[in-house]
User: Which sequence fits this backbone?
């Protein structure tokens, strides 16, 4: 029997959460050590899945199936393709770096990491990771939705308990309401698809591979595509249902912001693709023009709002809205280039935004402010973090030799082939992004160090540097060696195109 790697990687976080809760509350270092060990183990398994994916064979691999409720057609059905394997790797990377960032620093002027109830914090964070891995590997629609909700639930507690005291309750509730409304809308669509599939085939099943051939009529797909796609895409921060996201970013502790922007928003985009486009391809073709319009607005709007922000976290939060708009824009093309770019952008943006929030969190923990006009000279204090942020900025701008270029260029090419005017309008975001990234780098890292910070700021810890280096490594490797990821994502794109073209 082959090793059930997808089951193990999915349930490792929840097992770790239980073990952490068994540790006495006062033994904080033991709690952190168990969390780190679990994160390292999950990262190793995610690398196994990614590098073990056979590009020549393509399709879904590492298949596992365990019947749970056969009478209702529900099973633990796991597998990854070229689109989900990179996202499993992304989840492993963000989980590992998030734990490192949360470790903390005992310096008297620093309030870094999670000092208050780290046991409960890591337990909830790992339950979140459990849901994330589950969504990316599920081939059963019921279990995908189950894990989707598991990933959303801990966010409220993580923000409301450990978040920024000024806005945490408001932001946590706003996030929860937006996401659950989106979930309810998509759930209705999922249940309708389940029932119609039964009417068409006589089989009760949530098997998504079977649903691909369930014979949904064009009329049915045209009616239900938008509720399903947009319901899931709310979690991706799609405009105009994006307002929850920047507020959630700002209020969340650093590791949660990294998970939120780095991985959780990808859950929404991936589910919108996997359930909306792949199970309702004719509906996607009917409504692609509307999705393209919404995404184009998100790309430009998010970049402009990021440009005018004075709060460092809000800047990164609205930047995420813009970059996730690019993912949805790639989806809307329904062509090879656009879908390829969208798949690459999900990974690239996930790593980049995790790095951004990590560095911003390090600055806030030491300077106790996120107001950009109040900051300056951070390169003198935190040179390693400065280099990390600059690399993230170059990725955000889509500069060649970095992962952002490899991801964004195919998206714009795909859009150009469908509607050149939309490509031109969306490209405005590149200029705006470059403007706010370079301005903030100059102000925060190379401006004059305020007198109040003299002698009170410390450099980032060794663990922080490991996290920064890990995130930078992936962005540089993909930029210099696109074949590290492009061929795998291309395999996933082929699967999507087959369904769009009506293939069996």
Assistant:
């Amino acid at each position: 029997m082959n090793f059930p790697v997808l089951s193990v990687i999915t349930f490792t976080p929840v097992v770790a959460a239980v073990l952490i809760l068994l540790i006495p509350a006062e033994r904080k270092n033991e709690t952190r050590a168990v969390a780190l060990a679990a994160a390292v183990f999950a990262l190793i398994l995610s690398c196994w899945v990614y590098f073990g994916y056979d590009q020549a064979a393509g399709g879904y691999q590492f298949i596992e199936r365990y019947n749970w409720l056969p009478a209702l057609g529900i099973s633990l059905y796991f597998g990854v393709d070229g689109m989900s394997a990179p996202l499993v790797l992304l989840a492993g990377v963000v989980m590992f770096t998030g734990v490192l960032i949360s470790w903390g620093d005992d310096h008297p002027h620093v309030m870094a990491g999670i000092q208050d109830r780290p046991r409960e914090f890591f337990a909830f964070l790992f339950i979140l990771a459990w849901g994330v891995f589950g969504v990316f590997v599920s081939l059963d629609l019921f279990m995908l939705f189950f894990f989707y909700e598991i990933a959303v639930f801990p966010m409220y507690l993580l923000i409301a308990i450990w978040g920024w005291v000024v806005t945490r309750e408001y932001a946590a509730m706003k996030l929860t309401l937006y996401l659950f409304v989106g979930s309810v809308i998509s759930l209705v669509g999922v249940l309708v698809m389940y029932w119609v599939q039964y009417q068409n085939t006589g089989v009760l099943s949530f098997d998504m591979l079977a649903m691909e051939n369930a014979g949904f009529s064009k009329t049915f797909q045209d009616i239900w595509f938008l509720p399903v796609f947009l319901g899931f895409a709310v979690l991706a921060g799609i405009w105009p249902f994006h307002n929850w996201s920047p507020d959630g970013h700002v209020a969340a502790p650093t590791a949660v912001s990294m998970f939120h922007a780095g991985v959780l928003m990808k859950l929404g985009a991936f589910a919108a693709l996997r359930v909306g486009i792949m199970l309702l391809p004719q509906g996607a073709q009917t409504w692609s023009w509307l999705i393209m319009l919404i995404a184009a607005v998100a790309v430009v709007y998010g970049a402009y709002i990021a440009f005018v922000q004075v709060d460092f976290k809000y800047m990164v939060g609205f930047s995420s809205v813009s970059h996730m708009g690019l993912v949805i824009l790639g989806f809307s093309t329904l062509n090879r280039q656009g879908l390829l770019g969208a798949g690459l952008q999900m990974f690239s943006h996930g790593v980049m935004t995790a790095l951004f929030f990590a560095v911003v969190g390090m600055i806030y923990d030491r300077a106790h402010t996120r107001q950009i006009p109040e900051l300056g000279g951070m390169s003198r204090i935190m040179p390693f973090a400065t280099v990390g942020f600059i690399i993230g900025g170059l990725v955000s701008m889509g500069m060649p030799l970095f992962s952002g270029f490899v991801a964004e260029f195919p998206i714009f090419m795909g859009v150009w082939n469908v509607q050149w005017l939309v490509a031109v309008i969306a490209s405005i975001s590149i200029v705006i992004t470059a403007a706010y990234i370079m301005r903030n780098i100059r102000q925060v890292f190379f401006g004059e160090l305020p007198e109040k910070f003299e002698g009170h700021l410390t450099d980032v810890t060794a663990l922080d540097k490991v996290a920064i280096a890990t995130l930078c490594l992936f962005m540089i490797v993909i930029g210099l060696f696109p074949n590290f990821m492009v061929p795998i994502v291309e395999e996933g794109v082929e699967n999507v195109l087959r369904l769009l073209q009506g293939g069996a």
